[in-house]
Amino acid sequence: MPTELRLQVHDFQGPHRWRWTLHEARGRFLADHEVRLDTGDWRFTAFSDLHRYLRWNAAPDRRIEAEAELLAQVGDWIGAEVLGAVGPALVGARPSAVRVVLPPEAGMLAFRPLELARVDGAPLALHNVPLVMCGDGGGPEAKEPVGGRLRVLGLFSLPVGAGVLNLRRERHALATMFSEIGAVRGRAVELRVLQYGVTRERLTGILEDGEGWDVVHVCGHGTPGELLLEHPDGSPDPVPAADFVELLELTADRLKLVTVSACWSAALKAADQLRALGVSPPVGWSAPGSPAPPNRGPAMDTLATDLADRLGCAVVAMRYPVVDSFAIDLSTALYDLLIDKGRPLPRALGMALRTAVTDPPTLDCPALSVVTPALFGARAVDLSLTAPEGEPVTFRPESLKLAGLPPQPPRFVGRTKVMTEASAALAPRSGCSGVLLYGMPGAGKTACGLELAYTHAESFPVVVWHKAPDEGTDITGALSAFALDLERKIPGLRLTDAIEDTDRLRAMVPLLTEFARTQRVLVVLDNAESLLTSGGGWRDGRWGLLLGALTGHSGYSRLVMTSRVRPAVLDARVRQTAVDTLPAAEALLLARELPGLRALMDGQAAGVEPADARELAVRAVGLAQGHPKLLELADGQAADAGRLRGLLEAGRTVWKETAGGLPEDFFAVGEPSGVRGEDYLRVLRRWTDVAAEGLTGVERDLFHAVCCLEEGDRLGPVLEAVLPMLWRQLGREGEAPETAAALAAPAARGLVAEPGADGLMGVHPGVAAAGREAAGEAFRAAVDTTLAVFWDAMFMHAVKGEDGQERGALVVRAGLAATPYLLRLEEWMRACGLLEQALYRDGSRRVAGLMVPPLRRIAEAVRGGEDEPAAMFVLARALAVVDAGAAETLLRELVARAEAGADYRIMSVAASELVRLCQESGRLGEALALAEQRVELSRRAGMGPWTLLSDEVARLQVLVFMGRAGQVLAEIGGLRERMAALPPRAGEDEVVAVWNVREVLLNVGGLAAAQLEAWEQLLEFNAEVVASMRARGATEMAMARAWFNDSAALLRLGRVEEAWRVLVDCREVFERHHNVEMLGKALSSLADLEHQRGHGQRALVLESDALRYRYAARDVAGMAVSHHNLGNCLIEGAGRPEAALAHHLAAALVRAVTGGEGLEGSVAAAADDLRRSAGPAQVPADVAALCRIAEEVPGVRLADLLAALADPDTLRRTYDRLLQQITTAAASPA
């Protein structure tokens, strides 16, 4: 069994003379050695300052090989002269750890590369002989135990102008590894990371956390004897070792391990890379021109030893500057072995080192790496830090506050300047109110926004992410969706009602601004270009008001916005940062991440001389001018030197043809200067063509096909399904190729990216545009035809279903997917028909918003033709979801035209939509008249039996909203018998879907049963509805709407917990789909449930929110319901009869002027309020007084509602009549 050994220094007379003794822990002697070093030997000089010696003695053009050769010689010398007989004794004993005991005067030996000593041809470090540098004092004091979970704090500091490190890659790797340890292996671990904005103040606040931290992992820039943290403005803050130790003393009672990976030569690494490529680095990248004296003093040594001595913790520190890739591999392996596998620290480090070191050495793992990590402190000798078993703790920043954010991409290289500038703006005292990240398509704006959200979440109690609609889609409901996302994340914010009226929103601006000034909220608005005109103006002026409110301050909240277009008017406190190309140092970093270019840079490309390979790498990185996609294309050709040369020559030619000409030497200026975005795109198009020219005909066809597909169709299954049809359409011979094999070459050449988490093949917008252009018009038409036929067939398959039941979600997907192809083919009415059917299945605001732009285009294309009425009707149906007023105007125009031509069919279908609009806006009398009229119109038009039955159902639907439930249930039975006798499928003379008629009929029956409190009957009706919807594959939103109807019956039947589960699940769906109407209903039902539980105050809050949402959704019937319910909450839960009276009166008045159901209940409730109040003096004198009281609830606009429902005289007479009824009833015994 491995045991601990003790290696001790005696008789130390200087760095050249001392004696070693090696004993077992219990005292048994193993070996000793008299050290007598020749200070004139070059190997002694190297031993004293190994990194500096290698730097100035390894040939730049073959640095990797030369360093390895020098280290082998030095290692042999250390083995023979420094360790002597001790070395073989250490290897033979296979110790668990070696305690290297150094008296104070010999402290410098802790920083000599003892592990480099070669025994049996290999360094001591690779024999897994872990040396732990210790003083000659006693053992460490006891620490607080790990407790319920192991707490790890990661610090990743990269100040502005501090050089280039791939800290994000290390941070992401550690977060992924710890997440796996927690979620997959059941360990209780908490990881908190800080990157971008790691200030002393922020770090102090975290270290003051009362729980303390078990492990602190430090990675970033440094110089000998100090670390670089950040000032609040993002600038470098050099922290001396003593000061850093003092900071960590805040958590010393619990701290057991500190890992320090401070690179004090990042700029030198970039410079070394250029020198290795034969290029002179720019001024400022290089180290001083001559080597410094080898005796650097103790500054560098103090950090590790101070941490170990003053904090009593174990320290893993780097003796020499560490390379990013090696640091990542070492730390992830170390923590996995230590925290999950339970290995003691010395053994874990030895095993991790053997995993991370590569043979032969590379730029990513140079030969010096093997002796770079070192262990310090007596606690390290036997430290174990296995994370306890238990429920995994959610890791920060991947915390619940980030729910709804897209996942982080696995690779995020460079962008140091962008991220540090943006991070500085996010700092609490920056004076900025936000950040605009703008730039060309595909530049990485969204990735930068995500990075900011994930890395700064800890300093913001609330993080909101919202993606604006894609360009080309309708934005009518975009502001409402944004407001809903804000409300969902910010408790108490009531915004949805204010955005419905510009004046109300303007009045709310000061409150929002004060909130943003005094609270700490991070809002990220992605894809904002769809909200802007090409000139930078807001397409909807309310966006300018709302975003101006969120940024018009110098306080604590921040808005991060990404956009291709810069807003013309933006608060001066919003920092505008371009996200375009990478500077030279970051471009080199990305090039090393790409395998083809890395092989060239390392001189290891097959069949290419090392010098030629490096020259090609220099030209590729230089001509790419920091554009990430150009670098990827160059990488894709790097395996073939001839092909890469052709690509580079083409790039040089195109650059010369641009307005700016061939750019300056990229490495001389450090970053692109004066290069326009359109010039990059020209080079990108040409490089795309060159890369594609080398493909076989089959491979090029596949690449062009992917480019011609709509983005959402770039899925493997779609391409596999359509390729045989496309092959025939193109007239190609033989069988269609296997897609994965044919796309392997385009993927290898950087033209197509491997599918992401969503399954989509990634194609850069510039590459896709070039591919489409190169494909030619005939090829593009063939793709459009094939995909239109494919999605049309999928649509028909989904409608028919495999078992006779349609698949509703697929119907919607196919209808939307086919549309762009059909429009390019000018198949206007086929596209219109598919969209109409899809809208029947999914009438959500999101889907309708996607449909409005193509439907407008269709209506314009068929204007004046025989298809115009049909196109106008479908457009009106979509508009009814996003803009009811515009829809009604269009429908009435359509009816007027149809009447002139006696077109009863058009009059009938238009009347059906008008019935729904009138019903939803509270004009129930008009809705009933239209419904009855439609029955006659359909008969005159010769409609089929299903359509005629649908007309009868629509009439009953209006009647149920008018409160005539008994009449409705009496007629439902006969209609169901009539329905059972109809043919199972609709004929040519029908304009309705069979399933729709059936489900609406059952739903109307359920509504009537609810009014009559026949709860079991309601559940029976709704069970049939849900079964029908499930069988046809209805959308998630449609299913949630149906399932929601169970909640009222479950609650009244005493099944409260079942009702709660239904409501909570449905609410989640409604929020996700930004359905304001259904959210209002869900909140109202939740208020009812809380009332049943006896939580009166909670019910009051929920019903107030529900009322606000009802007004925002313009749900007139729902407004009356919530006014009535709020009155109940006020009287029963708050004891406020006067306020309750106002809301019961409001409900009664709305129901009276609309003819809605529930009027008698509201009158009775108001009479009861009057009995409980002081007397008639508490009754609002008139409608205006009533509105003033009711509108004390945020979001209520009762005066506007009543004005839209009836004229002033009608309102006055109705109100007076209601007051008379109420006062009479109040005077009667209860």
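[next item in queue]
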Amino acid sequence: MKTISALKFGTALASLSFAALHALPVMAQQDSGSGLELEEITVTGSYIRTPRQKDRPSPISVIGQDQLQDIGAADIADLTNTLTINNGAQNNPDAFTQNLTTGTESINLRGLGLASTLVLLNGKRQVNSAAPSDDGILFVDTASLIPMIALERTEIFKDGAAAIYGSDAVAGVVNFITRDDFEGLELKAEWQGNTNSSQNDFKIEGLWGGGNDRTHLTVAASYLDRSQLTTRERDLRPDAFIGPNGLSVSTLTSTPGNFIPLTAPRSDLNPALAPLTNIFNAGFDNAVPLFNFEGIGPVAGTPVIANPFGDGFLVGSFGGFQFQSPDIADPNNPASFLSGADGIQDAFTGTVLPQLLAVSPGLIDPSLANFNIAGLAPDQQAALQSAFGQLIAATDAAGFDTLLVPDPNCAAAAAIDSDVVPAFSSVTDPLTGQSVDVGACQYDFGKFFNLVPRESRLQGYASLNHEFNEKAEFYGEFAFSRNRAQRETSNFPITSPIALLPNNPFNPFTGAASLFIGRSAGVGQTTGDFFTDSPNPNNFRHDTYRVVAGVKGDITDQWYHDVSYTRAVNDYRLTSSDGLALQTNLALNGLAGQGCNPAADTPGTGNCFFFNPFGSGALADEGQQVPVTDLSGNVLLDDAGNPVLVPVLNSADVIDFITGDITLDGRSDLTVVDAVVAGSLFDLPAGPIGVAFGFQYREDGLTHDLDDDTNKGNFLFVSAGIDDFTASRDVFAFFSEVNIPLHEMIELSAAVRYEDYGGAIGDTLDPRVALLFTPTDWLSVRGSYSTSFRAPSVFQQFGNQTSLNSVIDPRDPTAQPFIAINTRGNEDLSPEESTNFNIGFTATPVAGLELNFDYWNFDFDDIIIREQPEEIARRALIASDPNFDPSLIANGSVTLGPTGGLTFISSQFINAVGIKTDGFDASAQYSYDMSFGTLRAGIEGTYINSYKAPVGTGNDVIDVAGFRNSQNFASPIPELRFNANVGFSTGGHNLVAFVRYTDSFKDDQNCGGGDLPSDFVGSDPVSLTCPGGLDFAKVASHTTVDLQYSFSFGPHGPMEGASFSVGAINLFDNAPPFVNTDGGFESRTHDPRGRMAYVRLISRF
């Protein structure tokens, strides 16, 4: 953090002004003999007016209307995705990495983060979206700016600009300029459709402008209707990765579910599990005592499984299966278990065991023949040994080391719904001939998501300019955006343990208590029906309003002023549904219902209802009933002495009772007051010295208000409580800028900005110096150096969010569970600081040819990142990790589920060491006029030489250029991206083609690779290495071709001013490269849609 005194700031400003006033004159004279007067304009990156935009010592790209039309850009995201300097913008909705931001669009210059690019509209700031990214970043939603028809041009300042614009301009500035001087009426209609599916966009827009000599009004409006593209329609995973019944992304938290028996499988209590009795008990001669509490005092501590490594089973001495077996790091450490007064207490059921035994997975090996069951012949022992091996193999095949028993209705459900996939096998007791199913009922949730969400956007923009007199002009802007998006998901799994008592009336495992692993019936789906294609809709609402009012004008012939006020607000709402934990537990015990009194009423009677979590709850016949018993097996009687009978089929009332609405209401607001005075001091021989002085006050705030059940953590999927919060801050800034023509060939620019945030953030002083050298008319050389500053957002300081991400389990690299990640704010964060420089040139050696080249370098310190979930899990679970801290489980930072798997990780925002990145931008554009038309050709590209980013705890830095970076702060960094184009126009005809190339990169989440899922294993996200000498899986390079033909009817005739365009984006339908992750592609880099055809009609009056 920088702390700058007022005296130091004043000295800096005075020094800058002194340099401007006392710059020495040089020999060259300004050429004024042409008689041509150029209009002076203000260019992005400077407040000093200049006659030509190219006379700037910094790299700037300008994308005009014609270029937007050529690339077929229907919205700003289409433009952003074509920029080679953009890396990691979140413009392709992804339910697995973008939980809250569906319906938004963003820009990420240089891959330095969504908040490191300053987005301006007509040179003024825009409010951040109230929806943070999964990394907790607040950013400007470019989908909520203005109608595209109102966009005149886009200016991209590809250099640090904090000295001019303040915080957030670390990687650069993108300034959207509107068509405020438009005269007439323009109407546009556009259709864009996916040639592989029914997904399409339809958009209509209008623009009107008019006025008189002193007043001008421009009004624009647009409406977009976008249909969805689901993963069911377009599965991007190769056929080899799609298993039985089209299984693409499977889970054991299925519908119907799976069960872990918690008590001994005794045949007198559990007929359905009786075959397991002999098979399991036969293995006890190979059981190894892990810990015996006899004679040792009880030690309170962490849950039963504190160190869940390995492949064996953890069991009670009485023969009951319990949880996944760890190879206990220290068997003699009683703190590894939660102990009761007389032994080891099961953390979920409360059962007290006198000792724990570990059944070795080595029992699968036939060479082990030390079975010694009293009274059994050797052949019977061998048969039991073989059966025990089958039991373990069946359990392993299901994906768990713990004994798992599928819902008896799994096969029947699979016959109705192809997303239910039986993945179990039958194991037979060789002594009795009885069989039992062991394994899992799997569920394919991968087909319930959107590659393109259903969306509608209604947007408007108006500008008013009124000239009071020759010295003063009023300007005002109003913009609004009403965006609605709906993203489909599957019904949510239950991550909190749900215990079923032995007397549950629907329990097919009579007398057996068990843990239920599955999904709450009907949540987000057709009421009372497990088996339906109807997904769980998440609805997103984004409403944005922006007002600007200002006065500008000339003070003298040499000086102008601009004073303005900006107020902008973004209102955000997310709604979804999930099962309620308290209500579900009541319903499992027959106490569901609005009029039920759990303390006094009899379960299943009167206003009290049962919830049936088994498959029979959806498959039973209407009217089928079963009796209710107590824990002793006695049938309950109602007040009339009749048996209490309850329906097997779940009713709508029960489903409604256990289902709750998740609601997040957010508001982000921004207030800005700007004042700028600029002009020229005096003339040097090479030209006038230009200066600018300014002041800015801004206040930004953020509020998140969640429903009561989310506050309390009362949902079954995201079970962590999340607090409401509201926060705001204000910033005062002063800045100065000078432009000195030292020589007709040399121009020096300098700027300095002081910002004061107060409080823990403090203040900062950021300078910028740039030099432009123009030795000839066809060559200019530029260089710049600056520092930048980005304060932590109010969300990073005070916010709290839970997102859902795929995380590598450090105990098993092949396991990548989809779990909840909670991220908390950190009031002690320091601001980020950056130093960057740029060296480049522009050359026009022959007529029609322009060459540009720039080397850029950013050194970004104290970057704010979310603690990496994999790193937290590793510190909590891997004893050999140098930062091993088992207290992370005890304090709730890492939560393990009933099978020992990861279910929840809590993290916070931290300052990491920083990012160092450098690379090259290059472009060549050529235009040649011929007698029969004009030929155009060009190429532009970006090469990233290095990108050193923090990994692990944030203190280690590794070069991640050329990596996907799913396990660290960075975005995917393909080292090379380029666009090549060729076009020809004649008369009103125009034909243009683009070739877009994205380099291959390594997948840091997956090692190995091949034709089958089993060919992939997880990596070490801390060291960025692969186990066993494997190399990282490769995400292939990607090349697409865009083609467009357009025709303009010209200024005469009945179609005067009209034009139409037809084209295709990704003409050859090149699918995005496969990535072995949920969804099958990298959403931050590649477009999942495939070929998109479009037609555009424009009429001008």
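[queue empty]
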